[in-house]
Amino acid sequence: MIQLTTQQLEVVQDQWEPNTTVNVVACPKCGKTVSLVNKVLSHLQNDELQPNEILILSLTNKSVENIIDQFKINTKLEIVKQLHISTIHGLATEIVSNNHKQFINIIEEHEWQTLRELLPINNDTVTRSKKNNVTKTHNLETMVRLWKNGLNTLFGVRHLNPLDEDMVQQTIKVMKDCNIMTNDDLISTAVNKLEHNQSTQFSQYKLILIDDAQDLYPNLLPFIEQLVQMNNPQLCLFHDPNERIYQFMGNNEQVINELLQINETTRNYSLTQNFGNTPEIINSATKVLSRNFERVSLDMTTTKPVCGVDPQVYEVSDSVKQLDFIVTEICRLLTTGLVSFNDIAILSRTNAFMTQITNHLNAYGVPCEKLVARPEWLNDIRIQFILNIFKIIAISNTKDVKMCNFAILVILSRLKGIGQKSLFSLYQFCSNENIPIWEYFLNTPVNKWDSSISNKSKIFKNFCIINDNNPKSVDEMKVDEIIQVVNNIVMGLDCSLFKYETKESLEDFKTNFKLMIENLQHCEVNKPVGESLLSYFLKIYSLHNPWKESTNSNTVKLSTIHSAKSLEFPIVMLANAPPANVQSDFPIDTNTLYSGMTRAQNLLYMININHLMVQANSFKKESNIAL
What we know:
alpha/beta
């Protein structure tokens, strides 16, 4: 066990007792994960608990990965494997899928477009789409979330008009028919299973620890409550209340307060020693935090010596000048001989501006990589198309064949000559008759298809391409066999996604396809005996688990502030779009800025940060940089 501070020892040595809560309020870079890991190891070494009686949860893959890495450093690998360490949504997936015996479909962002195409076509819909943006994919997704969360009427104000409500209800029906879920559905379904004792294998936990608990939002509260009520375990919350950066998901503070009321006994601890940031960065972050009337004072101290460099604040009115300034400053830092590309991270508030920065760095030949909530290759719409082919191959010959309905519709929606009317008529008929789409294709001659289905010949032709290459069994398929099947199917289908307009688009796909193959190979090595490679690969995909990624260590890292949680870098540039840009019209919220600032270990830049305290005289400031 490593040398722990007095504060950390208090947390680690806290006695395990059922029906109690341990509340650990922690500042940034205080050794929170180290304390959590050593607390677990202390209970194991004292024979108070067995590894399989401990559940450790967090919201992000990165946090889970950090926890697992700390355990690997401090204990034997066989003990790490017995602990249950998971994201909250990963655990919900295990519960809903009956420990992976059933396949589940979580809708991807780009698949909302296909979902919209399955809605009835009528004059009301057309008229409404001309008047406003309600029928746009993002708005449809937002409306469904509001409706399912009971927020269609809020504070007496009706947020959806009757026509919109009708569209939302039709969308929910389509989702049910196609067996697809949102992440919120996943959580509510898991709660229902726990309430009805349908997942008793998850009732053995005597200690539940939640890392980054400040990010829990209201929809997750019933799930956590159900887990705690199953076996009356000790509940340990590790959180920094000043880093609540997901308030747009709901009131995080309310969730923490509710969890602190679950047990009669609560013991409180604080971790206030910061080991990662310079005093100058901590003092500046604290000044920013002073504008937040909901802040929690932690009396934070830092162990690093004064370095004599304050955070550098700049305002640049021109977008090109700002991007050129970032490149110039990177080059200046590198010429010192003390800094490498890997020491530098650029954090922005939005993905859109992060993409602008990425393109500019690429244009100047600056090596860079994006840090995202999940690997970039999974966001490639062409890879998503291939993953839907995987689903069809894996499921079409099983009793769960209906589970591939939506994958079939997504693929058909991307093919030339098959429009919304064709998709809707096919879905509507099979839904009314309660027939899986694949079985209808397989068992009904095309000349006997229902007259309501349009474009029969094109749909059937593409079905034959998939079916002719579809193996009868996937149990023994290797990586090269899976790739050959997918290649034959994609080459046969008339899909515009694979007609590359630029060389860059082709190279991007090659890179992402290679990463997908590497992950298949990784799964082939690690899959359990007796489980097919495809089913294991899809299980890992649905579990929100970390994926194996090929990363170049000597690159500038780019990320949104939200995706950079739990990370730290020697040098951080917080950058926002110039004041004239629509992306910077609204100010950054205090907690998000505080979180971004404390990612920097030694040197912090703040460029076009729209926040009252950054614009105040308490910060050194340069304007309109001359390049």
